[in-house]
Write a structure and sequence with these properties.
Elements: H1 3-20, H2 26-31, E1 38-44, E2 48-49, H3 53-63, E3 68-71, E4 78-79, E5 84-90, H4 93-122, E6 127-129, H5 139-148, E7 162-164, H6 166-170, H7 175-188, E8 194-198, H8 201-207, E9 214-218, H9 222-235, E10 240-244, E11 262-264, H10 267-270, E12 277-283
Parallel strand pairs: 6-11, 7-8, 8-9, 9-10, 10-11
Antiparallel strand pairs: 1-5, 1-12, 2-4, 3-5
C-alpha cells in the first residue's frame, strides 16, 4: 500500500471512529439483525462532476471486507441526475458506513464540480490554483478533488515551497535583508520555488528585482494588476505571476485576458456546496 492510500485510509477510519465512538451504531445494532443482507445503490440527485468514488467505496470495505462493490462511474465523469454511481452488497455495516461514505463523496464531488465550473467560466490558458484553505485533516483528498475538476494544486503545505507573505516581510529591516533571506532560501533549498506576496506597485517594483520564481498580486484591482504585469515583464520576464484575493465566479471572467499564469481561489475548498447524493438501500430476500 502506497503512502497516499495509507493517508486516505486513515482519514476514513478516523471519520468512522468519530461517528461510532466505542459503542458503535447503537440504533442499527438493536433494530437490524446482523444476519440480514442488503443491496444499496448510490444515486445522483443532481448533475455534478464525480469525485471520491473509490474513497467512498473504501468506507464500506473497511467496516466489512466481505462487502462487495460494483462501481459504475469513474472520478471526473459528468454525472446526470438519477444515475447510479455504485452498488454495494453486504450486511448491516452498509448502514453504519453510509454517512461517512456520503459525506466524503458529496464534498469531493462538490469541489470537483465547482472547480470545473470556474475553469469553464475562465476559458483561458491561465491555471486555476487551490490554496491551503482546506478542511483540517482532509487536504490530500480535497486537493485531489481540485485536480479532478481540472484545477491545479498550489503548494501542499508549509514545507514544499516558499511563500513570503506580509507578516514575514514586516519582520525584516529592509529590502536588503529580504534579499539576503531569499539568497539563503536558494542555498538551503535550491529546488524549491520561492514566491512572494506583493500588495502594492512599489512592492512589485522592488520584488521583481529579486531572485524569485513567482510574484503573487494580492487583492489588487484590475488596473493595478495590469500595471504590475508591465513592471514584472519589463524587469524580469521569467517571473511567473499569480493573482489572488476576492476572485469568484461573478468576476472571474474579467481576468481571462490578463497576461498572468495563475489565479488562486480559496473558495474551491473553503466554502463549496456539496453534491446531492443519496444511498438507496433494500433488504435482499
Amino acid at each position: 500500500m502506497n503512502e497516499e492510500r495509507k493517508k486516505i485510509e486513515t482519514i476514513i477510519k478516523n471519520a468512522l471512529k468519530e461517528d461510532m465512538s466505542k459503542e458503535g451504531d447503537i440504533t442499527t445494532e438493536i433494530f437490524i439483525d446482523k444476519k440480514l443482507k442488503f443491496t444499496a445503490q448510490m444515486i445522483a440527485k443532481e448533475d455534478f462532476i464525480l469525485c471520491g468514488v473509490e474513497i467512498a467505496a473504501m468506507a464500506f470495505k473497511i467496516l466489512n471486507k466481505k462487502n462487495t462493490i460494483k462501481i459504475f462511474k469513474k472520478d471526473g465523469t459528468k454525472i446526470k441526475k438519477g444515475e447510479a454511481i455504485m452498488e454495494i452488497y453486504g450486511d448491516r455495516s452498509i448502514l453504519i458506513a453510509e454517512r461517512t461514505a456520503l459525506n466524503l463523496i458529496q464534498r469531493l464531488s462538490g469541489i470537483a464540480t465547482y472547480t470545473d465550473k470556474l475553469n469553464k467560466i475562465l476559458d483561458s490558458r491561465i491555471k486555476i490554483l487551490d490554496t491551503r484553505k482546506t478542511t483540517p485533516g482532509l487536504r490530500i483528498i480535497e486537493k485531489y478533488a481540485v485536480k479532478t475538476g481540472k484545477g491545479y494544486n498550489h503548494r501542499f503545505g508549509l514545507y514544499d515551497a516558499f511563500l513570503i507573505k506580509d507578516n514575514h516581510i514586516a519582520c525584516l529591516k529592509d529590502l536588503s535583508e529580504l534579499k539576503k533571506k531569499i539568497n539563503l532560501c536558494r542555498n538551503i533549498y535550491p529546488r524549491k520555488n520561492i514566491e512572494i506576496e506583493a500588495q502594492s506597485l512599489k512592492q512589485v517594483k522592488d520584488f521583481s528585482k529579486l531572485d524569485i520564481d513567482i510574484i503573487m498580486l494580492d487583492n489588487m484591482k484590475i488596473k493595478e494588476i495590469k500595471k504590475a504585469i508591465e513592471i514584472i515583464k519589463r524587469t524580469n520576464p521569467k517571473i511567473k505571476i499569480e493573482v489572488s484575493g476576492g476572485i469568484n465566479e461573478k468576476n472571474l471572467k474579467r481576468y481571462s485576458n490578463l497576461k498572468i499564469d495563475y489565479i488562486s481561489i480559496g473558495a474551491l475548498t473553503h466554502s463549496v456546496k456539496s453534491a446531492d447524493i443519496s444511498l438507496e438501500i433494500k433488504i435482499r430476500r
